[in-house]
Amino acid sequence: MSSAMSTVCKASQPEQLQPPPLYTFGEPWPEFNDGLSYTDTVRSSQNATTLIDFYCSKYRSSAPLQGWLQRIRNGQITIDGIVVTDPEAVLSIGSKIIYHRMPWEEAGTPFMLQVLYEDDDIVAINKPSGLQVLPGGLFQQRTVLTQLQWKSSKQGLICSTSQDVQRPYPVPVHRLGRGTSGILLCAKTKLAKTKLAEYFAVGTLAVGENRMLGKNYGEARKILKCYRALVRGILEHDEILIDQPIGLMQYPGVAKGLYVASSSGKPALSNVQVLEKDALQNQTLVHVEIHSGRPHQIRIHLAFIGHPLVGDPLYQVGGRPNLLETETVKYSIPEDGGLQDLCQEIVVIICMLICLFSATHPQTR
Question: Under DSSP, is residue 5 helix (H, G, I), strand (E, B) or coil?
Fold first, then answer.
């Protein structure tokens, strides 16, 4: 907040100073990632008899016919370990076919991580805005997980294939949105991962159970998840309990669907407390404690009550997005043959806007 501080109405305890990190670590990202491999086994139930038929029928949303032809002729697909460049190659039941996606340059992201706490089982990291936690979508290498693995590998500790639950196994146990900064708990062993995952699951399960049994919503939780968010508008009440369910809807450019406020969705609960009100900017700083862990829960719940996050171009009042016009979508075939349509480009732009805003105006912590 700037000159508007004179009009701010404070309704919270003084903010505590954050202790300095124990240490920082991180390796610069290489220019290109390692690419990806997608493996399939030909089943008797699949009607496709040739290589091009298989990919065009099963993965037509990934690339058009011309795109799959290009990938096959590039030598990016193998059948039982042998590179095949003939699109009409006949498939046999039980054959293993692998599509090798070419390495690509991922968008710029931070790589240095601050360690706030560490013991033999867990490490708490201050995740910066703009860094994805786990691989997904356009970010397969530039993630927190990769940095954790590189760190352990450098120390000669990593053993991802070991069955010993006490052997090193660095992995985040929950997620923070790429545009969100905050404390991220990571397990150092498989046993720690299992236990922490159980603790996180308790709160989410309790929300549904307590709704039916009429118990205290938070009585069973072992981990508290608290965030700060800057929202549009001035909240009328200093504390609000939001129990709007969250579910999936079909959305252009998002293959698995987009999470939104939905009466048929899964139970979700957020407790919102006002910290500061800025009448001049028409904004409110809030403290949000989420009792469940649904994707985009804070963004959806605050938008649902009429106060979307400042700088969020996706979720609007009511907790649902503005639908994109899909009738005039056009696509082009990039170097790797994939379908690069207008909707996918819009989603990328949205992500970049969120990251840019988060970096200059941290809105959730």
Answer: helix
Distance CA 110, CA 131 (A): 6
Q: Identify the bridge partners of residue 171 per DSSP, sorted by sequence position.
A: 187
Dihedral, CA of residue 1, residue 291, residue 144 and residue 103, to nearest 10: -100
Q: Could you tell me what percentage of the chain is helix, strand and coil, using 3-state DSSP and rounding each to the nearest 5?
A: 25, 30, 50
What are the tens digits of pLDDT across the range 119-148? Answer: 999 999 999 999 999 998 889 999 999 999
The sign of the CA dihedral 183, 184, 189, 193 is positive
Task: For 241-263, write each residue's pLDDT tens digit.
Answer: 999 999 999 887 676 788 999 99
- Using the predicted structure, report yes or no on whether residue 325 has a pLDDT greater than 80: no
Three-state DSSP at 117 gives strand
- Beta-bridge partners for 228: 287
Average of pLDDT values for 38-54?
84
Sign, CA torsion 80/86/92/93: positive
Mean pLDDT of the chain: 80
- The three-class DSSP label of residue 146 is helix
Whether residue 121 contacts residue 192, with contact meaning beta carbons closer than 8 Å, is answered with yes
Q: What is the pLDDT of residue 322?
A: 75
Contact, 36 vs 23, CB < 8 A?
Answer: no
Beta strands in the chain (DSSP E): 8-10, 23-25, 36-41, 77-79, 82-83, 96-101, 113-118, 122-127, 168-172, 182-189, 225-232, 239-242, 246-251, 254-261, 270-278, 283-290, 315-316, 320-321, 331-332, 340-341
